[in-house]
Design a protein that fits this description.
By secondary structure, this protein is α/β, with parallel strands linked by helices. It contains 13 helices and 18 strands. It folds into two domains: about 5-50 and about 320-384, Urease, subunit C, domain 1, CATH 2.30.40; about 55-310, TIM Barrel, CATH 3.20.20.140. Strands 6-7-8-9-10-11-12 form a seven-stranded parallel sheet, sandwiched between helices. Strand 11, helix 7 and strand 12 form a beta-alpha-beta unit. The chain is globular and about 65 Å long. The model has no long low-confidence stretch (mean pLDDT about 95). It binds zinc ion. Zinc ion binds near residues 86 and 267.
């Protein structure tokens, strides 16, 4: 007994397979799975399937005054089955965000801003009074399956005169739960060296390949020792592309030194989705084709690596017993020019194009299937 059979799917190693789903789980992966009574999504050996894409850094609290979007527009409609909102909300807004998130088909998670006000203005950490530890702890305890991490933004415009203090506070606050801490880096002060030296295994540096002066390379274009040490300690590098935080030049220099991000994420919200340079997670993934990354490395960064970093159990792998979150996509053989956040342009010979999202609800044992606009154009449909 199954709920859905995906037939003739190409896996990233170019093998062809059928996949059966039951009660929100992947239950069988085999060369041929047949059952005439079950609905079928036939990929006709033309399209790929992977574990559902996970975007580790987005902004999707629709009521946020600055960085707002709808989870399903950056999620299932774009081939992304799980999104993490990275600090748009603090403890004061999380109830409203939780209610909205429950209405989405996309899995939505929150990295709670250590500032109780969240991103209602750009400098949410300029006043240390906005860090309310008791309220923060209470909020984490209230939403253990929704709040899966902590966000702190450490750049000049955010912290004002407070320098490194908010990060010291965040590390203290993290200690009680051990949740992953995501640190936004940008313009100094605080200095990147000072930030990196405070980070421990599993902490996430987002905007890791930004091209600002406070970037991972020093003025001589050498990797900062502090970053080298952080990587050795197990600190995670996350892309967090955004409107101003991804530089091809920095990414290219990193690749020369064999430094790769653990996770590729978009930092998407309505403005950079509609006007660029982000547009979608798929578009950000294609930028790594420009850089010469293998398709597998790119996909791992939005599936198994992301699930591991975010500690999402049973997600991120196309394996029997795992949640049936899946992304169906094409790797379209068509050249495209793409710009980074600094307006630098590179060319890719192929593009990731999401065609469908399959999202498992493992509590209700049900399945949601979204065929994207591109999927419909390619005549992708469920039969039976
Ligand atoms: Zn962000």
């Amino acid at each position: 007994m199954y709920d859905l059979i995906i037939k003739n799917a190409i896996l990233i190693d170019d093998s062809i397979t059928d996949i059966a789903i039951y009660q929100g789980k992947i239950v069988k992966i085999d060369s041929v799975i047949s059952d005439p009574t079950i609905r079928i999504l036939d990929l006709k050996q033309k399209y790929y399937v992977s574990a559902g894409w996970i975007d580790s850094h987005t902004h999707c609290f629709a009521r946020s005054p600055i960085y707002h979007d709808e989870p399903d527009l950056i999620g299932v409609k774009a081939g992304v089955t799980s999104v993490v909102d990275a600090g748009s909300v603090g403890a004061l807004d999380v109830d409203a965000f939780y209610q909205l998130a429950q209405q989405a088909q996309t899995h939505v998670y929150s990295f709670l801003n250590i500032s109780k006000i969240g991103l209602i203005r750009q400098n949410e950490l300029a006043d240390m009074q906005d860090i309310d530890v008791a309220l923060f702890d209470k909020t984490l305890a209230k939403y253990p399956h929704f709040i899966i991490g902590i966000k702190v933004r450490m750049s000049r415009s955010v912290v004002g005169e407070n320098g490194i203090l908010p990060l010291i506070k965040a590390k203290e606050m993290q200690r009680k739960t051990g949740l992953p801490l995501m640190i936004h880096v940008g313009n100094n002060p605080p200095e990147l060296d000072e930030i990196a030296d405070l980070l421990t295994k599993g902490d996430i540096i987002t905007h890791c390949f930004n091209g600002k002066p406070n970037q991972i390379f020093d003025k001589q274009n050498n990797l900062r020792d502090s970053i080298k040490r952080a990587i050795e300690r197990g600190v995670i590098l996350d892309i967090g592309h955004g409107g101003e935080s991804f530089s091809f030049a920095v990414a290219e220099r990193a690749k020369c030194l064999d430094i790769y991000p653990n996770t590729i994420s978009s930092d998407i919200y309505s403005k950079n989705r509609l006007q660029g340079p982000v547009f979608s997670l798929a578009n950000v993934m294609t930028k790594f084709i420009c850089l010469g990354y293998s398709r597998k490395r790119i996909l791992d960064s939005v599936t198994q690596n992301a699930a591991q970093v975010l500690r999402l159990k049973n997600k991120g792998k196309l394996t029997v017993g795992y949640d049936a979150d899946l992304t169906v996509f094409d790797i379209k053989q068509q050249a495209i020019e793409l710009a980074d956040s600094d307006g630098e342009v590179r060319q890719s010979h192929e593009q990731f194009v999401p065609l469908a999202s399959i999202v498992a609800d493992t509590t209700k044992h049900s399945l949601y299937i979204e065929i994207t606009e591109e999927g419909s154009k390619n005549a992708l449909r469920i039969s039976n």
